[in-house]
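Q: Fold this one first, please.
A: Sequence and structure below.
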Amino acid sequence: MDDDTSYSSGFPGSASSLHSIGELARLTGLTVRTIRFWSDTGVVPPTDRTPAGYRLYGPDALARLGLVRTLRDLGVGLPVIRQVLEREITVAEVAAVHAEALDVQIRTLRLRQAVLRAVAGRGSTPEEMELMHKLATLSDQERRRLINEFIDSAFEGLDVDPDFLASMRSGMPELPENPSQEQLDAWVELAELVQDEGFRAGIRRAAEDQTRAWKESGRPDGERTKRAAQAIKEGTEAARRAGVAPDSPEARRYVDEMAAVCAEISDREDGPEFRAWLLERLETGNDPRYGKYWRLVAVINGWSLPDMEPATEWFTAAVRAAVRG
């Protein structure tokens, strides 16, 4: 039998505090259909029935309907709401669980937003959009697996410096719980980069070249390598501050100082032969995408890393001018 939505609660013998579904709908702004559905599921059970079988609700129905509506607006399911109303679980417990669930949803929405902004900015094809969406929604474990697979592909089977390999694996991109748009964009770009076959091949060529160089001159220890990098950074910064172009005669003094340090850590004698050898190492290993890899990791992890790319570019150009001039 359908409920009488307009039935008056003041029939003979009834309590004036009982309401029909129609009255509840008018008092709460909910639809009759919604109240009837919630009543059928047991979250707002009727208190009594009329002689004709229509449902009547007591004074607590208004409060229950208000709570049910609030919890439904917050995404809580009716089975859980029924547990709350029956005091099997508390509102606080429900709130904690759903707050955590909302964190996951917000994170997912942020990732989707990053994908859509990237697609809009790049004018991507449907295929590229699908790829970016997959990359953005990877789990933490899947992201680590993707980077480890890239490292394995680039360096597997090579006699790579263990410290270098350890730094690659320890520099794993880790998206925070609430990443910024910049961090999400950086992750999508990094994930695309490490899957680029050209980038992988270039990194591997540089590693193979480094391995050959070590066989010729021996492997320098980490401290000596750091000293050479620092000398190049400081020397090129001084040259650029002075406005010295790498292919100018004035650059020769700076090149001599930096090349001498490089020769020392390589256990070689500085001179034309060494500088030709050094230029080959620099050109083989100077892939700007490698610097881009670390810049993206730094953005994702919130790191502040020194940018060696300008120094490497200036030094390479200056050594090239010296060798070929």
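Q: Good. Now the second chain.
A: Here it is, same layout.
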Amino acid sequence: MCPVSVKSFAKINLGLLITSKRSDGYHMLETVFAPIDWCDTIEFSHSDTLSMCCTDSALPVDENNLCMRAAKALQESAGCSAGVSITLDKRIPFGAGLGGGSSDAATVLRTLNEFWNVRASLADLHALAVRLGADVPYFLEMTGLAFARGIGDELEDLSLRLPFHIVTVFPEEHISTVWAYKHFYPRFERTPPDLKQLVMALCLEGERSCLGAFENDFEPAVFDHYPGVKKVKQDLLDSGSFYASLSGSGSAVFGFFDKREDADGALMKMRQQRFRTSITAPGFSMEQ
């Protein structure tokens, strides 16, 4: 069988509202996931055993890596003994709030389901995805904007695309999700805005007055502990972005721009500071 090469795209969160904490310790949230044009590439090659290598030596290539965990989960679920050699060309920064590991895990599930001729249903793959991570179902099942609630795994396809240029910046700070949940400032008494209706008004009617409602509850604590991340947001706004925010638990920050030349200017300023960046065109989706 010929090697198969697949792109795994990142996401940003347009609004991230932490609404409560369950008795088991998990937090409930509401957010809008949006894809961006920043991706890893995973190559799958025939092998008698299950193995992995990665271009980023800082990442594990054993079962501590979500790719390997996803492959083993599918093996066990399907009673499959086939092997595969996985090569991960890692471009999405980790500890950035961009969902890179979750996206990679979803790509492994979806691709090996065909590569091994497992033919598991989407419902079966979803069950495996939820066990791997809260963001994994989004990357497995969606290509554009999606409204998420619960722990992030209850998804509604909004059939929308963001009509803006998006500049995403990684300020070279790795922030763990565990740290973010430990340090964020709870606002459980708040009545959350209807993010689903607001993003529909934004994308379909151009209603920008709603953008202030798209808050990220991790942002205040992250900015207090990592002032360099806060500065990146301000730099994007100073460069012409009409909305900027932390993505996920950080440290990546993104900004929306009307004009490509303003987005390119912001990109250049960020790269001069040696930050890793990406730019996403209006209407982008993860369809391949």
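Q: Anything worth noting on the second one?
A: The beta strands are 4-21, 27-45, 50-54, 84-89, 146-149, 154-157, 165-170, 243-246, 253-257, 276-280.
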